[in-house]
Structures are given as structure tokens and as C-alpha cells.
Amino acid sequence: MQELIDRKIKEMRELGVVNREFRIWLEQSDLWYWLYSSLRIMGEAVEKRVIVDILDGKIVEDAPIDAYNFITGYSAVYKDMRSCAEMDSSADVKLLRRWGGMLLGYAPEFRADDPVVYEWNHIPPFYKNIAAETDGLLRRAVQERRVTPALKWAAMLHLEFCRLYPFGKDTPVMAGLLLAYCLIREGYPLPSLTVGDIEYNKMIDAYVNKGEYEAFEGMLERSVLNRAEAVLQLNRRAAEVNEN
Known about the structure:
The chain has helices at 2-15, 20-41, 48-55, 65-86, 93-104, 130-144, 150-164, 171-185, 197-210, 214-243.
């Protein structure tokens, strides 16, 4: 599936961004799709219509305040991620904490205890080693990307970050930020992940307890493929309009 996705991404790059309208739509829809699935994974049922309206700057009275802040904060994070990707910056702890601060209103700190993560039936590694282990994970990722297919690499990095649980209760959000940046940096349009909170937690459980990553990797591949196909079709249409 990775080869099929890469062919579609290559065609997208060869077509380029054919007009201003398509570029604006692509960036806006990146956020629509990613935020919709991110909130669903967090257990927040927010309609796509509400997300679109909030991103357009409208006041949505029935939107939960936490979801409202998350959506508006992610818009700023997305722009910063794109700038970092253009500079070919690797994700590190400093960048993650910056994005976490923009999104959450405070810079997440490394956990200072060893909690039980009930959603994943998981006791994460000893907290006193967590800063060094997280830094090591992100450093190794730079080398591993050179020998690992892009989506498998992104999936494994996300899963291993969850296993470390470095930022305590903020870890799921931070893991989502890390995955989003991996996709952006690799040139993929952000997809809507095809799982809800229950399925997602089962996939993380399967990895942290059994080392099983295939379900999450396959889900990520299908999600990116669906999104790439939709973007490519619209880009072709935009190119045809431009020619006429």
C-alpha cells in the first residue's frame, strides 16, 4: 500500500498547487479532517460543520469550550508545523513542548510518577528515565527514517511515544501532534483517521502489551490513501480548469 500511496503523492507533487483556491482548500481541509478524527479519538463528538465554522472565525454557541480552544489552537500549531517542515526541522522535545504550549495553553512537562494508564492497561517505564528515553526515541527516529517506509516509520514512532507515556495525561495529545508533524514533513495531506476512541485505545493496548503494530499501521495507511486519492482527484480537476 505504501507504494500506491507514494505514486499518488508523486503525481500530486508533479501537478503542483495549480491555483490559489486549491492551495487554500488543501490547507483548510487538512485541519478539518485531522481535527475531526483527533477529537473523535479524544472522545469528543464534534461535527465537521462545527469545526469548519470555528476555523472560519464564527462563534458557535453549542461547541464545548475545550473543543473550541483545541480547534483554534491547532490552527496556529498547523501553520507553525508547516514552517518547520519547510525548514526540514526534525521533531524534538523542544518543538513538541512548543506546540503543546500553543495547543493546551501550557508547556507539558515530563511526568513525575509511574501511573497506570487504564485505557491501555499499561504501566509506562520508570519516570526518572523518561526524559532521556524520549529524547533518545526522537533522535533515533531521524536515523530510522532513512531505512524505513514513511508510514510504517510514522506509525511506529507514534506507538512507541505512547508506550513511553512521557507527558502523563497530555501524552495522547502530544502523540497526535508528533504524528501530524511526521505526515506533514513527509508531504502527506493530513487524513481523517478511520477509528474512534475505543478502536484507537485497543490498538495502543495491543502495541504496548504485545508489540502488535500492524493494525495501527494498516489504519494509518488506509486513512492516508483515502485522503491522497481525494486530494489528487480535486487537484486534477483544478488543473483541467486552469488549462481551460
